[in-house]
Design a protein that fits this description.
By secondary structure, the protein is mostly helical. The protein has helices spanning 3-16, 22-25, 32-42, 60-72, 76-90, 117-133, 137-153, 192-198, 203-217, 253-259, 265-274, 299-313, 319-322, 329-345, and strands at 58-59, 101-102, 110-112, 155-158, 161-164, 181-182, 230-231, 237-238, 245-246, 283-286, 292-295.
Length: 350
């Protein structure tokens, strides 16, 4: 991408996000103490984000989240550290996407060279935000390369819909008889308009519209919830070979919707109530029976419901959600994303 074009893209990103001046783009949305606690727990000196609930592996999702959080903390040095590991250890595929799994205990460390499309989108989104805010054309150019690779390899039309394949390999026919298979939590709705600036195509808007339409239709079982993995071969249904559950993947969907400004309160509240167990905490849900499988009491999971209550009903976040004490990588990440969003868009809920 030529220098003048990156400048135009950066300006378009700033306009899209409503940044009236450079300082507004550089304000930290995450408290410095919270970011310090997060990186002390999960950021290795090499720049990799450690998934401490999954054998201490690293993956493209975690690197994307780490970049996003470092940007939200306005910490350029940490961002560059995470980006160095990401580009040298994960951006190894010939198609421009990242390998998804890196295991410190294995040799070679890359144990699955397929991509994870949400990880790619997270990385590109964080790079675009940081490049625009910090006037770094290299970040914007790298974001554009990833966005173009996603558009070319993972954003596809199927059955009249535009969908995001979870990975380039293994999720569509002929490899899967029930393909295409999607993961509805891979739609990062706030990032998709940025992808459209980086790799212009009408397909991005169609991806948003069709993703929301599919999500509204995925009302499986008595709790009317989406599955983590969904077959679109005919009518949407839980995919073969996966547990038919609303699981750890899907728990973040309401947070993504809220952060993107999706104003469908009926859908937000349906998801929130459907995923809540009798003890008031979110849970993984057996879609066939509607029974909770595992209660998720960590503040990082609870904050998803708290964000929905803030957006839909004006309810203040409880003290337990406002206090950050990192535990496991995934809920700790969700908690910081939730806190950053509420601090910026709904400070009255704090």
């Amino acid at each position: 991408m030529r220098g003048w074009l990156t400048i135009l893209v950066a300006a378009a990103i700033a306009s899209l996000l409503g940044w009236s001046q450079p300082a507004s783009a550089q304000t930290a949305r995450i408290d410095a103490a919270a970011w310090s606690a997060y990186k002390a727990k999960f950021l290795d000196p090499t720049g990799r984000i450690i998934d401490n609930a999954n054998g201490n592996i690293s993956h493209s999702e975690g690197q994307g989240y780490g970049l996003w959080l470092a940007y939200l903390a306005n910490n350029q040095a940490d961002f560059e550290q995470i980006w160095y590991f990401t580009r040298t250890e994960l951006l190894l595929r010939d198609d421009g996407l990242a390998v998804w799994k890196w295991d410190p205990s294995a040799k070679p460390h890359v144990t699955d060279a397929n991509n994870a499309s949400d990880g790619d989108m997270l990385i590109a989104y964080a790079l675009a935000l940081a490049g625009s805010a910090w006037k770094n054309n290299d970040y914007i150019e790298a974001a554009a390369r990833i966005a173009k690779a996603l558009l070319a390899n993972a954003v596809v039309k199927s059955g009249g819909r535009t969908i995001l394949l979870p990975g380039v390999e293994g999720f569509d026919a002929p490899g899967r008889q029930d393909g295409p298979v999607i993961n509805p939590s891979y739609w990062i709705y706030e990032a998709i308009p940025i992808m459209a600036l980086l790799a212009p195509s009408d397909a991005w808007n169609a991806l948003t519209e069709d993703g929301l339409t599919l999500l509204r239709s995925m009302q499986f079982g008595p709790r009317k919830l989406p599955a983590d993995w969904v077959s679109l071969r005919r009518q949407p249904q839980p995919a073969e070979g996966f547990d038919a559950e609303f699981g750890y993947n899907a728990i973040r969907i309401p947070l993504y919707l809220a952060r993107a400004g999706v104003s469908d309160k009926e859908m937000l509240l349906r998801l929130s109530s459907g995923m809540t167990a009798g003890d008031g905490a979110p849970a993984t849900i057996d879609l066939k029976t509607g029974q909770p499988k595992q209660s998720l009491g960590d503040a990082g999971y609870r904050i998803v419901n708290d964000v929905v209550a803030c957006v839909a009903q004006g309810t203040k976040l409880p003290a337990s959600s406002r206090q950050f004490a990192p535990s496991l990588y995934y809920p700790s990440t969700l908690q910081l994303l939730g806190l950053a969003f509420v601090a910026e868009k709904y400070p009255e809920c704090l």
